[in-house]
Structures
1.
Amino acid sequence: MASGPKLPDAAFRSAAERALIGEHPTIVKLRVLVERVAATDATVLITGESGSGKEVIARAIHTLSARSSRAFVPVNCAAIPHELLESEMFGHERGAFTGAAGARHGLFSTADGGTIFLDEIGEMPMQLQAKLLRVLEDGIVRPVGSDRATRVNARIIAASNADLNAAVRKGGFREDLFYRLQVVPLIIPPLRERRSDIPLLVDYFLGRMRQRLPGRDWTVTREAMVNLWSYDWPGNVRELENMIERLVIMCEDSVIDAPLLPANLAAAGRMAETRIPATLGDKGVNLNALVRELEGRMINEALKQTGGNKQAAARLLGLKRTTFSAKLRRCGVIAPATGDERDDA
Ligand SMILES: Nc1ncnc2c1ncn2[C@@H]1O[C@H](COP(=O)(O)OP(=O)(O)OP(=O)(O)O)[C@@H](O)[C@H]1O
Ligand SMILES: [Mg+2]
């Protein structure tokens, strides 16, 4: 067997894996998948809300792959004007369009031997989708205004924060391209569905602040942590990251306490309350979702009141400790470590 490009060494691999922080079962599974697809050239479609880590995953796949010594080229399909996207991606000939003074290579050529990351792929115009499909099928790129075709060997990773499947149903995205892209679909859950990772991420971002501001250190009070963890984080990990930076800047005497938190974060518990209607109404309700919501809220409340003590929280809810822990795991919530009890039994 011919020896292919060298795979990254162990230290490099573990650094890439560490970039993806999280111990929630969904993240652990994701990390395994990332490692597995990194060993192949399969096209990957990453779906996740804004700020949930799509680019982190794409970079990890590239870094762990045999292509890691070559370029990782991110292309934000939503940020580049539609009329320029084609020439940006595939290059153009001299005089191909007004303003094309000289011939130019496209980003696909830049990514030759490496990885091209097509972010917000759902925003790609239909006509370009057809062209991309051809690249995926035969690996051949045709610059704008050229009849010359060049072969490129770029691994394609695409990402979308919207449900591409829905876009296909509405006719905004080609079905054939959709299936061709998601040879391996990776779905990143929003942060609110893996709240148990919030304390870990807080620690991680504080660690990064320590590196930026040597000699400084911060502690997060239990109450502040419970608030951070009750909030729904619509901006996901990016929002949490920005929040930690803001709290570090604003806190005095290195203590991050609940009163420092912005009002929307402190009101997270109160907002949850409005989602449970008092009456059935004409349209009915989703009882299972409401029960889960109520369960999650009461668990959060109990943990808040007991400062994260699971035994005491279980007692407040009239549950056995084991039942309580099972519910915690199902909600994707764990109690903040109190130091004296870290077991999850
Ligand atoms: N699991 C994670 N561990 C550590 N940092 C993370 C994780 N997920 C996301 N981040 C950080 O959060 C920020 C947002 O991540 P990223 O840019 O990958 O999100 P995205 O899904 O591509 O967002 P968008 O949809 O807005 O492009 C980055 O600073 C990234 O480093
Ligand atoms: Mg992104």
Note: Residues 287-305 form the longest helix (19 residues).
2.
Amino acid sequence: MLTYDVLISAGHEGRPASCAHFPQHHCNLGAAGERAWTPIVADAATRILREHGVSVVRLPADFAGKYRVGAAVFIHFDGSNPPCRSSASVGYAHSTDATAAAAWHRLYGRYWPFGFQLDNFTRGLREYYAYSQVQARDGSLVLELGEITCPAQRAWLAPRLQLEGALLANFLSERIGKGHVPNAQAFPVQASPKSRQNERR
Ligand SMILES: [Zn+2]
């Protein structure tokens, strides 16, 4: 059992190469463009947390071993066909994670203008393949940060991947009570004038 403050896994990162080693994971490659974005958010959150003295194990989609951590997040963006039928969402396996899920709704909901699906609304969220590899004292969550296949949501997300990382770093630091990462409002929002038009539906 490996021990860290925080575990951050970038959804679909490393696939399809890693799939051969983890046939039980079913090798979902994610929505179009998702695999390029999840590592950007994961790296941003990891960098900020480490700058604040938080130990982070930064993992791709498929990894071996078991981890004991304060908090864990598995970063994703949803896909939908037809598009724009989904939004952000949260998945978890334990009723004790519901507190962490509620805290993420409160934080992300202050920024994210497109709402949330119900927690655990898909089997992928309810029964995420990596839950069994992680014991997280203060919450283990799959976070779908928005629907990448919906043009309006994608346009909002595209200039904000660094902000997403900053929000996650602040969230995780608060969950574990370590690092005192400032609120993401301290970080500049680099929104282009064009994407601002999509902020409100
Ligand atoms: Zn995904």
Note: Helices lie at 34-51, 98-108, 123-126, 151-157, 161-176, 193-196.
